[in-house]
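step=encode ok
step=design start
structure_in=
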């Protein structure tokens, strides 16, 4: 059974930082394209960042220079370091694993507010 479990969300003030973690079980995450998506209320789910098995990364324009995706294959874990957070970053953040099949985590809430 494949599971992706996100953690690290919470309430943070504008300009603050959070690090999200996604622990995968039932798959070898290093063989998958691992991604972070987010969905704000009333909006469609959007790609935030993804990392390929080669280590190549892609970012949404809105987070470039502020967010960093990384992976630790030994721990089967993917991270999203989020710095200089803005209220517009408020959303539920989801982890995904894409290979021959696609898997999703349950999401973790990130709220940026003063």
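sequence_out=
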């Amino acid at each position: 059974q494949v599971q992706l479990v996100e953690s690290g969300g919470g309430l943070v003030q504008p300009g603050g930082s959070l690090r999200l973690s996604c622990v995968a079980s039932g798959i070898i995450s290093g063989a998958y394209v691992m991604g972070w998506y987010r969905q704000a209320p009333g909006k469609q789910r959007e790609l935030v960042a993804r990392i390929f098995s080669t280590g190549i990364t892609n970012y949404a324009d809105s987070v470039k220079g502020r967010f960093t995706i990384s992976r630790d294959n030994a721990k089967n874990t993917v991270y999203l370091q989020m710095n200089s957070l803005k209220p517009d970053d408020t959303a539920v953040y989801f982890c995904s694993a894409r290979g021959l099949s696609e898997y999703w985590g349950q999401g973790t809430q990130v709220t940026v507010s003063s």
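step=design ok
step=annotate ok -> The CA atoms of residues 43 and 58 lie 21 Å apart.
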